[in-house]
Design goal:
This protein has helices at residues 5-21, 38-41, 45-49, 52-56, 65-78, 94-104, 121-130, 173-186, 224-227, 245-256, 261-274, 281-296, 319-322, and strands at residues 26-27, 88-91, 113-115, 134-136, 157-161, 189-194, 218-222, 236-239, 300-303, 312-317, 325-326, 342-345. With 354 residues, it is of the alpha/beta class. Strand 3, helix 7 (121-130) and strand 4 form a beta-alpha-beta unit.
Length: 354
C-alpha cells in the first residue's frame, strides 16, 4: 500500500536534509546532471554583462514578447498547434507555475484535485498548505494502456505527469484520449506536468500527444532547461487557456518577483537550441549511451519499464552501487508495486567515475 501524502511529504523533507548535508553518500536518485553539451547550449553570458540597461531594470520573463514568440513558434513546428501569446506564461522554474496553478483553482470553480502517481511532491505540499482536497484516481501507471482511472463525474482538476519522469516512460495515447473525453464531458481542467517533454528518445517525431487535450481546459507545464539538462538557469512555462493567464501571472509574479535579465537571455538561447534542426539530439544519444553502459557494466540489474524519455529510469541496482547510495524508492512517489526499485539518474555526475 502506498504512503499517505503526509508521510510522503515527511520522507521528502528528510531527504532534503540528507541530500544537502551527507558528504559521503552518492545521491544516485538526485537531480544534479553532467553532460558534454551544456556549454554549447548556454552560450553567450558575456552579452548580458555588456548590456547595462538590461541589468538596471526589473525583468519579468512573462513580459518578453520575443520569448513568447519563440515559444509559440516552437510549438507550431513541434506539435502543429498554434498558441496565442496570451496562452503562454513564463516563469523562473516549474515550482512557481505549479503553485500559481493551485492558487488559481478557486477562481476556476474547482474544489478538489485528482491525481495519478507519480506526481511531483510539491503538488502534495501546495495542496496541503492551501487546504485543497486531494484524491488519487488510479493505482496503476499511465504508460499502461489498461491502467484503470476512476475519474469523477463532475468538474474537477486532474494532475498527471507526462513523461512519467520516474520511469522515463510516456502516458499511453489511449489514456490521453480517455482524459480528453472526460474533459469534454465534465468541463474538468487538466494540469500536465510535462517538465521532461521534448526529450523523447524516439526522434522520428517531436510532437507531444498531450498537446491534443482540450486547449480551453488544459494547462501544460514545459521546462526546456530539463529538455537540455542545464539547470543553472531557471526557465519554464505554462501553456494555458488565455482567460486564466492573468490569475496565474499575478500569483506567479508575487511568488518570484522579477526574474532577471540573464534568465531572459538564456531562455531565448535555450528555445533557439531546442527549436533548431539538431535540437537536443546529441544529449538524447548521450543519455541512451549512459544507460547502455550502466546495463552492460551490471550496475542496472532490471528496470520497471523500458525508458523512452528524459534521463531517469526506475531500476534495481547492483549491491556495490547501493552500498553508499542515497536513493528514492517507490515510497517517495506514491507507488506500491515496485519493490527494490529506485529512481536512477542516468546523468548522475558520479557515473563518470564508475
Amino acid at each position: 500500500m502506498s504512503l499517505s501524502p503526509a508521510k510522503l511529504l515527511r520522507l521528502h523533507r528528510e531527504l532534503d536534509s540528507v541530500s544537502r548535508t551527507n558528504r559521503t553518500g552518492r545521491f544516485l536518485s538526485g537531480w544534479q546532471t553532467t553532460h558534454p553539451y551544456a556549454g554549447r547550449y548556454l552560450d553567450g553570458m558575456q552579452a548580458v554583462a555588456q548590456d547595462p540597461e538590461a541589468l538596471q531594470n526589473y525583468n519579468f520573463l512573462s513580459d518578453s514578447t520575443a520569448l513568447a514568440d519563440s515559444i509559440t513558434g516552437f510549438h507550431a513546428r513541434a506539435d502543429g498547434v498554434t498558441y496565442a501569446r496570451e496562452a503562454v506564461y513564463v516563469s523562473s522554474g516549474s515550482s512557481p507555475l505549479l503553485l500559481g496553478f493551485f492558487l488559481a483553482l478557486k477562481e476556476m470553480g474547482v474544489e478538489e484535485v485528482c491525481h495519478v502517481p507519480p506526481v511531483y511532491y510539491s503538488c502534495y505540499y501546495f495542496c496541503d498548505s492551501l487546504g485543497i482536497p486531494v484524491r488519487q484516481v488510479s493505482t496503476d501507471v499511465l504508460h499502461d494502456e489498461a491502467a484503470e482511472l476512476d475519474l469523477p463525474d463532475r468538474k474537477s482538476a486532474l494532475v498527471l505527469c507526462d513523461p512519467i519522469w520516474v520511469f522515463g516512460t510516456t502516458v499511453h495515447e489511449r489514456q490521453i484520449e480517455r482524459i480528453a473525453r472526460w474533459q469534454r464531458r465534465t468541463g474538468s481542467v487538466v494540469l500536465v506536468d510535462g517538465t521532461f517533454q521534448y526529450a523523447r528518445w524516439d526522434r522520428s517525431s517531436r510532437a507531444e500527444p498531450t498537446s491534443r487535450l482540450e486547449p480551453d481546459l488544459t494547462f501544460r507545464l514545459v521546462c526546456p532547461t530539463k529538455s537540455l539538462a542545464v539547470h543553472g538557469t531557471r526557465f519554464a512555462y505554462l501553456l494555458l487557456p488565455p482567460e486564466f493567464r492573468e490569475p496565474i501571472r499575478y500569483a506567479g509574479a508575487n511568488i518570484t518577483g522579477a526574474t532577471g535579465a540573464a534568465n531572459e537571455h538564456f531562455a531565448r538561447r535555450i528555445m533557439e537550441v531546442l527549436d533548431s534542426d539538431e535540437s537536443n539530439d546529441a544529449l538524447v544519444r548521450h543519455i541512451q549511451a549512459e544507460r547502455d553502459r550502466l546495463i552492460a557494466g551490471g550496475v542496472i540489474r532490471a528496470e520497471a519499464a523500458r525508458p523512452e524519455a528524459g534521463y531517469y529510469t526506475f531500476a534495481v541496482l547492483d549491491d556495490a552501487s547501493m552500498k553508499d547510495a542515497i536513493v528514492m524508492d517507490q515510497r517517495f512517489f506514491g507507488l506500491n508495486r515496485f519493490d527494490n526499485h529506485v529512481r536512477v539518474n542516468l546523468l548522475y555526475p558520479g557515473w563518470n567515475q564508475s
